[in-house]
Amino acid sequence: MAPRLLAEPASVARRMNGADALRIAALCGVSGVSAHELAGGYSNESWRVTRADGTSVVVRKYGRLHVTRRAVFFEHAVMRHAAARLPQVHAPLSAPDGDSILLEDGAFVAVLPYVEGTTGERSAAAATAETLARFHRAMVDFHPAQPCSTRTVGVLAWLRDRLLRFAAEPSLARRLPWDETILAVSGALTRFVPYAARLPLSTVHGDPHPDNVVVEQGRVVALLDFDFAHETERAYDVATAADAYARAGEDVPLDTTRAETFALAYHAAAPLGAEESRFLPELMIRRNAMLLWYVIARHGQRAPGDIGNAERYARRVAELDRWSRERRPPAD
Questions:
Q1: 144, 199, 281, 290: most buried by Cβ count inside 10 Å?
Q2: For residue 183, with 0-12 CB atoms within 10 Å meaning exposed, 13-18 middle and 19 or more buried, which class applies?
Q3: What is the pLDDT of residues 62-84, one digit of tens each?
Q4: pTM value?
Q5: Distance from CA of residue 124 to its chain's centroid?
Q6: pLDDT of 32-45, one tens digit each?
Q7: For the chain, what is the domain count?
Q8: Is residue 12 part of a domain?
Q9: Is residue 332 part of a domain?
Q10: DSSP letters of 259-324?
Q11: No. of H helices and E strands in the chain?
């Protein structure tokens, strides 16, 4: 997950309805007969539009994140590139003019294929690891003119600065264990810096969580939601997915054996270097510290001092810091 630019378009108050979804789908040549809103989607609104033959598409409205057109363009470019090489990725549909980014009431909108199956299946860890490896291989020759890129060293330094600012805010100072959290992020940065240049880069999914993986009869049939796709260390995606699949629930401690097993399943499909394996905990710290910042920043926009469920991510950061210090690094 990389920091997002908050820019155009302007904030959108009106939510999309079924009629809007049907009309937008029609712009991409989809004649829908019904539409209903899909659950979830903190940042986006999503509606399933069904054709007369029973097939469906998803109409997604990006209004709440206020992302730039460039960010959505990059996301769609990643999806199109991967879809040409990997059946688990499905490219967005386009309007007659060839554009897959539409505008609706000041918000960006897209029409995406709907894939039948279930999400949230943590039992599909091995299949997801193999699919993630294939996705990274598919992106090897992806060279966008305007890349969306970041590096873990910069992100950890940026996060340390932002968390120090939060700790100095009177309304936030007593809400979380800031000293422990900031020391954990600083420690991850210190450990990572000498080896940073040794980790290979890739365009990553950015949010390979079970909720973004569609499974059918034990097989992964779709990777969804490329909102946070960007170029960074390949192992960041592996760490993020391992962290998600090695927890029985969002507030459950990490099962380190399951996390290592996920990494080994990925390694079997796309071998990880020694440094990539070594720094999985530090990359997990990056992920959870970013979520901590994201939750506080988003909730604080609505109500100053509101930290939402940021305590969850502070606990994880401390947990992962302890694991990093206790873990025996993989042999070269």
A1: 281
A2: middle
A3: 975 557 899 999 999 999 999 99
A4: 0.92
A5: 18
A6: 999 999 986 667 89
A7: 2
A8: no
A9: no
A10: HHHHHHHHHHHSPPPHHHHHTHHHHHHHHHHHHHHHHHHHHHHHSTT--TTHHHHHHHHHHHHHHH
A11: 10, 9
